[in-house]
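Field reference: sequence -> structure
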Amino acid sequence: SNSLCAPSWPPAGGWQEHSKNAVLGDAIGGNNSWTTGEGTQHGYQASERTHDLMVRDGNFDTASTAEPFIEVFSAGNSGTGGLTAPKEAKNLIVTAASNNGRAGDIDGIASFSSVGPAVDGRIVPTIAAPGATIASARRIAGAAQCGTPISGTGNHYAFCSGTSMAAPHTSGAIVLVTEWWRNFNGDETPSPAMAKALLVNGAVDMGTPDIPNNNEGWGRINVTNIISPTSTAIYRDQLDMFNNTGEQYSLEVGIADPSEPLKITIAWSDAPGAVGANPALVNNLDLTVMVGSDTYLGNNFSGGWSVTGGAADTINNLENVYVQNPTGSVIIVVDASNIAGDGVPYNGDTTDQDFVLVCSNCALFPDFALSADPSSAIICAPADAVYDLTVSQILGYDDNVTLSASGNPAGTTAAFTTNPVTTPGTSQLTVGNTGSATAGSYALDVVGVATTSTHTITLGLDLYTAVPLSPTLIAPANGAIDVSFQPTFSWNDATQGQDYLLEVATDMAFANVIISETLDTTSYTPAGNLTPNATYYWRVTPTNVCGDGAASAVYSFTVREAELLGCSVPEVTFTDGIPVTWTVVDNTGGSGIVWTTVSDSACGIGNQTGGSGEAACADSDAAGSGAPAYNTELVTNLIDTTGFSQIDLDFNAYYRDVGAGNDLFKVDVWNGISWINLLTWDANHDGQAVSLDNIVALNDVQFRFTYAGNGFDWYAQVDDVSITCHGSEYMHFLPIINHP
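Structure field:
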């Protein structure tokens, strides 16, 4: 049975019913995108204690048998209000929600994601995973959240936001990691502490701010870093146990690749604390790592990396030491600073604690490592490509290493200054006779062979033999007219082109250059608008390490102009969607909450403005209770008001607000210099006609409708937009010119 769907909450048998039923179904863990309902900043109470026990033993009914259970939880959607219960349990993997490409900067944390710390100061959440605007199974009953179908999915999927979307990413990652782990560990499942340590050790620092922090914990999950590491790693999964305070574990390792960071993680499933305990930690282990002459303590970080000094961590049951540029020998020490409880149930001793260790970029046995500087070279023939090679020593390794190279361009030579190299030592690889080679990009494999091992590194070589040929311009075409205000400039990739200088000028002699951009791509769209009805000239000059090539031909184009249309032109009713010459702006960089029309799946309700049929809408309600912050603009085309003294703006509007201060709807006019506010709503307004009359008509006027807020709210709608220009029998029909 599914205890999550049981009629009582908590389940009749207690919270442990969740893990017990899963264990009986041969599950190794569970995803928990829910809360006990006990509020935020709950501290360490009965529900937290129970979940700590569940991680060590998922089935309380099997006396004297511990059945470990990996517990993944969502952090909650309370933002700065704090973690929801029972996320302050020590042995859980608590997941924050990061953004994805649809929701903004992928290195950003969603505004709704609950932040830590725990009441006792522990670092929570543990980890982050995408949780904003996630394509998920559509909700077909109940609230509007996740209920709006994604077009083309047969009404099966919707965009949903919340840490409830993030936690399943973590659970899925654990499934992949478990499969990988079993392949190398006799089909054994990693312990809950090892699953946590692997995710943390392989995570990517999002910089929100630098790790560790209470927004992302130890970073965003990166499964590739775990199952396909760039260097060797050492894992010890609860192989060592402390029985008494004062005991110590130590391990000497070598640095496998000096060019890679050293990352060491310990974690332990701690004994359950007393209800109300602060701090909640029972068994305190401390990590110390000596790298060369430097000593680092667990969780003593600055700028995302370990720093020397500081004090031992006495509250967390997960500790890290990350050294960005490791050199010398490495000694790892784990101290049992306080063993006060039964961390290993059914072990016969009431004071004991095991732990896990993950050491990335570590080697247990003597070996050598290869590295190169630079790792990629860019040259102009007939110059040589030169790479400085280092053969590093791991744990006293002193065998000779014989070097070889392959993949260099045909006709070139590859020679080493020293070969073989006595470890530790250096050599220099020179790729010569490049004047006989064909231009292009090459990958060179350098192989080091010793008696006991072989290592390979891949180097890059970009070889140019001449300055680039002139590129051919594509768009805007030469002599083009009616070009948009923000045209995309594009051109063909020049032969042997490396970078390109794009220049746009107001004159053919390029005396007045208004755009000058050096690019490594073959297209560019300016951020600002060009002047209506103006003629521009543009060219592209290619360059590479050999020098500048000849500039392209000069093309000219003319930007479209504003049109004055008669009063018989219909008002803007959005029947065909947002006019193509209007602009929709997302100032939050991809929140997913932007102006569209009511027929779009991103809008959850029909036209409420008092108009009929289509309407423009911006809807945060359709994004659900986990909606991110948003700021979207609907901007009309630029309007030439020459000869008019005043303008009337008329439209229908509807605005629904959850509470004052959370969001707003406003209307502004551009006067040629700045935006001037005409209307602001921060309270409910039913569908109504709005007239903003006698606006001073300066040249190049445009209007914008803005919907902005800091999270979940309702919606704004606009319909039947028209402008009347005083002193003339004409009306400006808006959808003419595009302007952001």
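Note: The helical segments are 16-24, 46-56, 163-184, 192-201, 223-227.
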